[in-house]
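Appendix B. One record, verbatim.
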Amino acid sequence: MLFVFAPPSYAESALHNVRGFLPDLRFTLVGPGAKTFTQDDFKGKTVLMFFGYASCPDICPTTMAQLSQVMETLGEEAAKVRILFVSVDPHRDTPEILQAYVEAFDSHAIGLTGTEKQVADVARRYRVAYQIEKPSKDDPGNYEVAHSRGVYVFDGQGRARLLAADTESVEVLSEGVKRLLAQG
């Protein structure tokens, strides 16, 4: 008996079309150089947005490495794409710490943070759940942050288009981004 294994189709992937289900790109956060960034700074760029924190032990570095691989597969088209890493740990993640963290993965990535309220507002807008664990009395700077996972993809007009599981393959995510870039 001969078995033929084919890669999963787009329909079987965890890449979901969210047009009309999630709000368009809108935020006011702080990034490199303590500059205030809004969605207007990314007009004309396809945006891959991921929520996490710089001292995350597993999910965030794995996802950032994956997004970096997606950027590599895009070649010259990567110049039309930005990775936005939004911190859910505004207490430890300064703009400088975040930018150093994301640049270790990709030069097209921008780390964003803000006040507790700014971060909470953006997270709520995209239905991102997170909880900062209570630090120990011995080491108040050592704590974890539980957070939901997913990569939000916005087109060049800032419209929410795709939502990918952080476990989605580089190939499927790359194809989704390429389709958006081809649509303009």
